[in-house]
Amino acid sequence: MVARGAALPLSWRKLWLRVHQWIGLGLFVVLVPLAATGALSALRPTVDAALHPERRPVTVAPAMPSLSAYQAAADAAFGPGATVTTLTLKPDDAVIATGRMRPALDEHAPRERGPPVRLTAWIDPGTARLLAVEQRRGRGNDFMAKAHEFHETLMLDGAGRRLVGVLGGFMLVQALTGLWLWWPRAAALWLGLRWRRTGHPLTNLHYLIGFWTSIPLAFLALTGIGLAFPEITVRAIGQVAPVQPPRPPGRTLFATRLSADQAAALALAGESGARILSLEEPTDSSPSWKFEVVGGGHPPVRLGVNDDTGAVRAIGERRASPGNVIQRSIRSLHAGDGDGRGWTLWRWIAIAAGITPTLLAVTGVAVFVSRQARAREPLPRGEKEAVV
Fold this sequence. Notes:
Layout: H1 10-42, H2 44-51, H3 67-78, E1 82-89, E2 95-101, E3 117-123, E4 130-137, H4 143-153, H5 160-182, H6 201-228, H7 230-238, H8 260-268, E5 275-280, E6 288-295, E7 298-306, E8 312-314, H9 322-335, H10 341-376
Antiparallel strand pairs: 1-2, 1-5, 2-3, 3-4, 5-6, 6-7, 7-8
């Protein structure tokens, strides 16, 4: 057993160095774009806004047009055979409508195979004019959709997600062995943080970047493995906390008694100065209009308006089981999409950690080539190679 603070046995150091080098040299062609597309996915809202300026609103109305006007614009954009399912009204942003295709009336008609068609429309909030519409199956065909698909499945059907999980295992080993190799041997820990640790600038850069990103990369790799093997993850979480199965989504009611405007008026009754942030239409499993309302001196609340009776009730958040909370935390840690300042900070750390493998790959290859060249050079008599 090695005493704390003592030098790591050279044989072990050589083993971890070889593992670290050959993972880096053998898989950097895949690991670098895998990490980079993960960073792009975390930046998706910003990148989408830059790639699609046509989706930005051009007017801001002093009074919001009716919800029915937004529904009509989306219905016209989606075409016959489709219906609007949700509306999202963000301040100073376009109204986003989502929709779905109605099932065929003829039960004997052939059903389409593959993922369902997803419909999205962007509507100017001031005029209810259509800005853009998108119809896609699965993730879509634009740049960001392809980047996200590559990050999750390497754009491979079937075993692609599991292959990403295996690569995440290699990334985890790479991060942990890099941290071990960085750790100063027989020296104070703070000496490892200095810039002039060696006489080679690229080696110093590799050490410095690797240390500050090794822990975030390890977390991202570990959570990515959990997402790539969901059955194993759920089984493991279930050993320590109960996991509730997800509720199946309900089918939208294509004929309702109340209109969206009538349901909104009931939801806003008695709420002076309140406004609607989002709307979900009734489904067969939940026949109520669901609104997110803000204003009136209180934080956003969710209200349900029964389509049959017009009764209004507050909708509390479904209390998730501890296992579901762990599941959600794993996904949020990997995507960096939680709420709050702490999550915002972690999101930017995760983005930086997704970008740095490119620098680590370049500097790592340079360090490897430099060491190979030095190893072939004979040392002057009586001089030993410096160990850092």
